[in-house]
Amino acid sequence: MSIVMSRTWVTVAAAVAVAGLAASACGTNQLGAAAVTTNSRVSSSQLTNQVASLNAAYAADRAKGVKPQRATGQEAQQVLTWLITFKLYDKIAEQRNIHPTPAQADKQLAGLAAQAKSSKVTLDEYVSAAGALPPDLVPQLGRYFAILASLEYQLNGDKTPTSSTSQTKLESQVSHAQCLASRDLQVQVNPQFGVWDYRTYSVVLATPKLAANPSPSAAATPAITKAPC
Asked: How confident is the model at residue 20 (pLDDT cuts 50, 70, 90)?
């Protein structure tokens, strides 16, 4: 299952921290933050509560025979990605003068509900199992997709990409907008939870610097932790 509504294949899982936090990690931990930006923060308690909500949703999904699609054991990174992504897209909306209405958000959620119905699951089951999204964050998901739809309209009008080239171009333009917003937000993730990867716009586990890897070909691709834009 996929919860992507827009024309762009945006990794939100995601959306969203730069290097340099290590030196100030103690201060961040003292503030009880899982992540901070120039104008807001995600508290560790908020993240803990949302991860608990996601795990409860997973348990309910499994009881109904709905299997979660995301990697297990990374719930904190997956949920934190969503929480930062919502802030990232609020910044994009501010930068590009986008003002999503409740009706536009509801329209996006209606589309998701239709996709869920076609998969014979509820909307809550759909977003949790397919997207690792705690169900109580569904309203923010609707706003996110409304902003993304408006961004794509600004970039490409009503035209739907008809070739891989045009699709790639639109994806690149959306990615650039995400990069600019991330850079301006100066997102910093508590190292306890990982780092912000500008390649995927998601929180990923940091690779231990001293970890030995006898098989270089099996090594994970290092996260890009500085804005390339």
From this structure: very low
